[in-house]
Design brief:
With 207 residues, the protein is of the alpha+beta class. It contains five helices and seven strands, in the order αββββαβββααα. 46% of the residues lie in helices and 14% in strands. The chain is extended, with a radius of gyration of 25 Å.
Length: 207
């Protein structure tokens, strides 16, 4: 019966209707207008990503199934950040698409705008905000955020969280690998120093 209602809704919907059905096996898929020449529309769901400017670690990842304005996704994203970290962010740097929400609780929302008297530190923070673009690109191309193979709204949410977690794990693994490489290089240098300068020259080690 549920499938029949879905089919009837597809057959009776018009071009200008809201909440249209774009996929029979994923009826919750939405259409988003991108405004780009090469890609005017995208189908799927909207994701919000929060990245720490100091460490580059993804601190929040949440999925939205409604066609919301970017500024209306901030409260839920910041609530997730507070729930995960136990603290509220003081300053949040976003792009111009989030214009409309200057403050949320104790967090100040910083949107870039023409200002001749802007401080150097604030200008630098706005520049660092652009670093989230390659993060989103890597999530899409390397961590399967571009296409979700999980079913339903819950699958969309799981895919976003798993993609962000995988990228954070990969970052930690790279740090561990770099630290291990430095440690082995240090051990090798100490070994060479001991052999050359501390051991007696007439010593003939036998095995």
């Amino acid at each position: 019966m549920k499938d029949l209602k879905l089919y009837q809704r597809v057959l009776t919907q018009a071009r200008g209707d809201n909440n249209k059905i774009y996929s029979l096996h994923e009826p919750d898929v939405k259409c988003y207008s991108k405004g780009k020449e090469h890609k005017k529309f995208e189908f799927g769901s909207k994701a919000s990503i929060i990245v720490d400017q100091g460490t580059g670690i993804i601190m929040g990842a949440i999925n939205f199934t409604e066609t919301l304005h970017d500024s209306k996704t901030l409260p839920e994203a910041l609530e997730q950040y507070t729930r995960l970290t136990g603290k509220e962010p003081e300053n949040v740097f976003v792009d111009r698409g989030y214009k409309g929400l200057p403050v949320y609780k104790s967090s100040k929302i910083n949107v870039p705008k023409p200002d001749k008297n802007i401080s150097r530190s604030k200008r630098g923070n706005h520049s660092k905000r652009a670093a989230i673009e390659p993060v989103i690109g890597h999530l899409k191309t390397d961590y399967r955020l571009c296409r979700n193979y999980l079913k339903g709204i819950l699958g969309d949410l799981m895919n976003v969280i798993l993609s962000a977690a995988a990228m954070n794990f990969k970052r930690v693994m790279n740090l561990w690998r770099t630290g291990a490489s430095i440690s082995w290089q240090l051990i090798y240098i100490i070994h060479i120093f001991v052999i050359r300068y501390l051991l007696p020259k007439n010593l003939k080690p036998t095995f």
